[in-house]
Design goal:
binds guanosine-5'-monophosphate; Rossmann fold
Length: 190
């Protein structure tokens, strides 16, 4: 997605050879027009898959997942990161390490919002090592639902997450692929 590449070049801040700060677009502020454009692209890529629900992990995936769900005209379910007193005791949970926070968090989805009849499109913001995505994929599999694919806004190709998930047989589509952040320079994969 060329417009997204342009915005990443203009607004992304390379924090280290591994980390790209995208607060202006994804992780702090949301540009509604650009986000709806991303949602349209994911909806186009998975249009023929009979998606019944879009699923993401709170919080940065929610805006783009909402845009995708809006376009596909299906509900959006976001996995919650903490167990709350109001949570369903029978919820599906996984423990995942957090790339940016350096801590382990629990993600959960209530069985009420994911069922064996569902065809799930999983949307996320950025994929690095793939821990968060693998955790949510396990939840989807345990629910009995079918995972039709995973759409990520930014794939960091120099980290193993996307590759290992594709090797699991999951269809993974990314809007932008970043090959390297070395030397403070954002290099896209062609
Ligand atoms: P993973 O579990 O794939 O290692 O990391 C996934 C999550 O960590 C993403 O959903 C994203 O929120 C965060 N993350 C990973 N790499 C980056 C990065 O380079 N920049 C930012 N802003 N977040 C990242």
């Amino acid at each position: 997605m060329e417009i997204l590449k342009k915005r990443i070049l203009e607004e992304g801040i390379v924090v280290s050879d591994q980390v790209l700060k995208l607060d202006g677009l994804l992780n702090h502020q949301v540009d509604p027009e650009l986000t709806m454009e991303m949602g349209r692209e994911f909806a186009r890529l998975f249009a023929d898959q009979g998606v019944t629900r879009v699923v993401t992990v709170e919080s940065s995936g929610i805006a783009v997942a909402f845009a995708t769900a809006c376009e596909l005209k299906v509900p959006l379910v976001f996995a919650r990161r903490k167990k709350t007193l109001l949570a369903d005791p029978d919820a599906l949970c996984e423990r995942v390490p957090s790339f940016t926070k350096g801590i382990v968090t629990d993600i959960m989805i209530s069985r009420q919002f994911i069922s064996p009849e569902d065809k799930i499109l999983f949307i996320d913001d950025i994929i690095a090592n793939g821990d968060a995505a693998r955790g949510l994929i396990k939840i989807i599999h345990r629910s009995g639902a079918e995972l039709v694919g995973l759409g990520v806004v930014v794939e960091k190709c120099f980290e193993a997450g996307a590759r290992t998930i594709r090797e699991q047989g999951v269809r993974l589509e990314s809007l932008v692929k970043i090959k390297s952040l070395a030397g403070g320079r954002i290099e896209f994969e062609q």
